[in-house]
Design goal:
By secondary structure, this protein is mainly alpha-helical. The protein contains 42 helices and 12 strands. Strands 5-6-7-4-8 form a 5-stranded parallel β-sheet, with helices on both faces. A 3-stranded antiparallel β-sheet has the order 2-9-10. A two-stranded antiparallel ribbon has the order 1-3. Helix 31 packs antiparallel against helix 32.
Length: 892
């Protein structure tokens, strides 16, 4: 594999490409070179800190005690850091050679700063100290006492040893740290002759110690040489103070006896995860690095450290090239053997480049009179096309020079891949490996089985050999662990292939069909063993793209997968390709548009959903089963828009067809009957629905509408349990929201707990209507308190934007409950009038009845609602809920 190094090396091709001298730079290296860079820099560091004039308390000397590796994600920086950690304790590859620091004890401490690891600045400091606790087995009193004071102030009631246990530091470094900090506390208390009871109190000890240091007492003469200890002990023990405590650690390390001397090498991995708009964590970490000049740091991240940039002054404490000479842009390239005393380059690109570094490299790659020769527009195109591959940048620079001989290069000249890149990628592959390579270029990601089947080969050996090649990247935690480098993949699928074994269009078509079939078999196997929603979506994404790009006609498993995708109401984006002509012209295009329209209805106005589904139905390209799907979801969108006649027509069509969605369509018809106030008809349908028709959901909606709270809760809990039994996360979330809805009228405190759980279930599901309904539940459980009406107004605005007008009725019902609880007759009358207008077409007209019942108001005219019990019973039940809320609020 090639790795970008960034050395300033003359490009002879550029030198001889024109009569005009051009400044150039380019170079490549490998991972052995990274080890040599670390070894050389560490050797320099050891020489520096052992000189007579070195003082870790010098806050003005330039800092050269670090090496930075940066490059695109997935290129192996974390692996490199782990290998460096192992090498520093002796487990080195033989080709890396022996280190040159015999006689020095090295302590590597690797810290993962990834957000997924949950590492805080406290954890960084504790990890370093815990590692030292194991390595030197003695207290470091200046630091330890400050740490104990900070810990007692910031974590009262949470013992340090318990925190270390939870964070895994005890299993990694043992239990020495809490014992050593306690020993340091006791030693200082004894030295100050403090009483036993006082000596165990951190605050008393630190106050006494600070006073003794100020007075230069003989008993603390050992600590008195640390000039900044007293001010640190007297400062507020907060995170800002903690970030200065590493100075104390550096001071303690420097005064260790020769037998205990040790040099920590602190490896900070995934440094890009510290980046944010305000650089808060980066500022603390930079301060730690600056204050520990006798330690050596290896930092890895996606982009170059900008600490030497003067523009960051004010955002970070120590900035500019004078502070960090090895990080300055002009010195960013590594040199093999820096002159004695010179800092050398301390930033090194590993593997592929980030977009920012591509731009930066292209700007410096070719220059004329100190100015970039390649324009920003061309650099942008090259960067996008390169996928971070250094070789692509090299080829683009050569092409720029070639074109420049005859005319001015334009961005369009670089909006393609390079056949030469493909030729180089194929040059050392066997025939079988090239065959597998072309096959997997059709896939976003793959495993050995998928690659082998897509290639149509009888055995996996060629696929396995290909995955060992550097053009394939492995992520062992992904669904499919391998993916082809983006630039190579683009070259295979876009560039003209002039090799002898190049494929014909028929070859590509057959490979696409094989890949689609292999994806389907993997999905079927997964479904029969341990169904995975993530795997389903991944298969659909790859399968739809294959079918659309190659105009495949045999959709097969995609139909079953489409039903599986819609069954659970989760709606992850499938992101199928968007053709230049958005009108579907193949069955695969129609299926992709169908699923996209259904999923995006959670983020689009429902009228847009109706229009998109009508358009795809009009093409006539959908298979019969998926035609029913389009009809069903169009009917659901009509219902959400309160187009209930159209909704009933569509649901009836699907129910009459008797297909897979017939149970859901029958549920839809039952719900439409309920919305029209025909509860007996809805209730009669419940026994016919079963799980597929979500019978518990229908039953619960009927009961809460009658203020039968306990029956509704029982139904929704049964529906939630059934959803969990079937692994249906989307249905579970819907049941949980409705459970909270039923409880919100009668039991606001319990509703609050259930609503919190509902939000957990909704997280990541993209169920817009249920998320908004959960906000209605918040209004209901808070009815009678202040602020409800203002929140209701804001919620109506969100509902309007979502194109879900049926939810306006729920908001007004919440307002009616609120005003009835507060005995606010005029506001209740206004709310009832709005409800009457919203339900004038007939649907949800029973909400108007319920609003009257809540305040025990007579109906202005006989109701058309058909309840499952008498109207008097329903009136009494709703009135009771209002009175119960009034009593609850009065009690508070």
């Amino acid at each position: 594999m090639i790795f970008w190094r960034g050395d300033q090396v003359t490009d002879l091709r550029a030198l001889f490409s024109s009569n005009d001298p051009i400044d150039t730079s380019e170079a490549f290296t490998n991972r052995q070179r990274q080890w040599e860079l670390v070894a050389t820099a560490l050797e320099e560091h050891l020489r520096h800190i052992t000189t007579a004039g070195f003082d870790p308390a010098d806050l003005e000397a330039p800092r050269t005690h670090l090496v930075v590796f940066h490059g695109v994600g997935g290129i192996g920086k974390s692996t490199l850091v782990r290998k460096l950690e192992a090498a520093l304790v002796g487990a080195r590859p033989t080709q890396w050679g022996e280190p040159v620091w015999a006689g020095h004890k090295i302590l590597p401490v690797r810290i993962d700063l990834a957000r997924s690891a949950g590492t805080t600045f406290e954890d960084v400091v504790l990890t370093i100290r815990a590692a030292l606790a194991t390595a030197i087995a003695r207290p470091l009193p200046a630091f330890d006492i400050a740490l104990r004071r900070y810990w007692e102030a910031q974590h009262p009631g949470d013992p340090l040893d318990a925190y270390l246990e939870r964070g895994g530091l005890v299993s990694r470094f043992g239990k020495s740290l809490p014992q050593q900090t306690q020993a340091a506390l006791g030693d200082v208390a004894q030295a100050l002759l403090l009483p036993g009871t006082v000596g165990s109190v951190v605050g008393e000890v630190t106050s006494a110690l600070a006073g003794a240091l100020r007075e230069r007492r003989q008993t603390v003469r050992a600590l008195a040489t640390c000039a900044r200890l007293a001010p640190l002990l007297e400062s507020e023990p907060d995170l800002e103070a903690l970030s200065f405590y590493p100075h104390l650690l550096a001071w303690e390390l420097n005064r260790l006896p020769d037998a205990k001397k040790i040099t920590p090498v602190i490896l900070l991995d995934t440094f890009e995860e510290t980046a944010d708009r305000h650089r808060d964590l980066e500022r603390l970490l930079q301060r730690l690095v600056w204050l520990m000049p006798n330690c050596f740091f290896v930092i890895s991240g996606r982009s170059r450290l900008q600490w030497a940039d003067p523009a960051l002054h004010g955002q970070l404490d120590y900035t500019g090239p004078a502070a960090w000479p090895g990080l300055a842009t002009a010195a960013a390239a590594a040199v093999p053997a820096p002159r004695h005393g010179a800092p050398g380059g301390r930033q090194h690109l590993v593997g592929d480049l980030s977009p920012e570094d591509c731009e930066d490299h292209l700007a410096r790659r070719l220059a004329k009179d100190g100015r970039p020769l390649i324009s920003p527009a061309i650099r942008s195109v090259i960067t996008a096309r390169s996928h971070g591959l250094p070789l692509h940048l090299d080829l683009a620079a050569s092409r720029f020079l070639e074109i420049r001989r005859t005319r001015e290069p334009q961005p369009a000249d670089f909006d393609h891949t390079f056949p030469a890149l493909l030729a180089r990628a194929l040059s050392d592959l066997t025939a079988d490996e090239r065959h597998v390579l072309r096959s997997v270029s059709l896939l976003d990601a793959f495993d050995l089985d998928l690659a082998t089947r897509a290639a149509g080969l009888p055995h996996q050996t060629p696929a396995r050999r290909l995955t060992e090649r550097p053009i394939v990247t492995e992520n062992p935690y992904a669904l499919w662990p391998y993916h082809l480098h983006g630039a190579i993949r683009s070259a295979l699928t876009e560039a003209d292939d002039h090799t002898e074994d190049r494929w014909t269009p028929a070859d590509w078509q057959q490979a696409a069909s094989r890949a689609l079939a292999a994806l389907g078999d993997q999905w079927a196997t997964n479904t029969s063993l341990t169904p995975s929603r993530m795997f389903l979506v991944a298969c659909l994404r790859q399968g739809l793209r294959l079918a659309c790009d190659h105009r495949l006609t045999g959709l097969g498993w995609l139909i079953d997968a489409a039903f599986a995708y819609t069954d659970d109401s989760v709606w992850e984006p499938l992101a199928p390709p968007t053709p230049a002509d958005p009108t579907p012209d193949t069955p695969a295009d129609a299926v992709a548009e169908l699923l996209t329209a259904i999923a995006r209805r959670q983020r689009e106005h429902r009228q847009r959903t109706v229009d998109r589904l009508t358009a795809v139905l009009d093409t006539g390209l959908l298979p019969a089963e998926l035609t029913e799907m389009a009809l069903y979801y169009r009917a659901k969108a009509h219902k959400d828009l309160s187009h209930n006649d159209a909704a009933r027509t569509g649901m009836q069509q699907v129910a009459d067809a008797g297909g897979r969605l017939a149970p859901k369509a029958r549920r839809g018809l039952a719900n439409l009957a309920r919305l029209a106030g025909d509860f007996p008809t809805a209730m009669a349908a419940v026994p016919t629905l079963g799980w597929k028709g979500r019978h518990h959901r229908v039953l619960g909606d009927i009961h809460w509408s009658h203020a039968h709270t306990e029956q509704a809760v029982t139904a929704f809990e049964a529906g939630r349990a059934e959803a969990e039994q079937h692994g249906a996360a989307g249905e579970r979330a819907m049941m949980q929201v409705r459970l909270a809805l039923a409880l919100s009228f009668a039991h606001p405190l319990r509703a609050d707990d259930e609503l919190a759980l509902a939000h957990q279930y909704l997280d990541g599901l993209d169920q817009r209507s249920n998320t908004l309904l959960a906000q209605v539940v918040t209004l209901l459980k808070d009815a009678g308190t202040s602020g409800v009406t203002d929140r209701a107004h804001s919620l109506n605005t969100d509902i309007e934007a979502a194109g879900l007008p049926f939810l306006h009725r729920f908001v007004e019902l919440a307002r009616a409950f609120h005003h009835a609880v507060r005995n606010d007759g005029p506001q209740l009358a206004a709310t009832i009038e709005r409800l009457r207008t919203l339900t004038a077409a007939g649907d949800f007209a029973y909400f108007t009845d319920i609003a009257h019942f809540m305040a025990d108001l007579p109906l202005p005219q006989p109701s058309t609602t058909r309840w499952i019990t008498s109207e008097d019973d329903v009136r009494s039940a709703w009135r009771h809920l209002v009175q119960a809320r009034q009593e609850l609020l009065a009690g508070h």
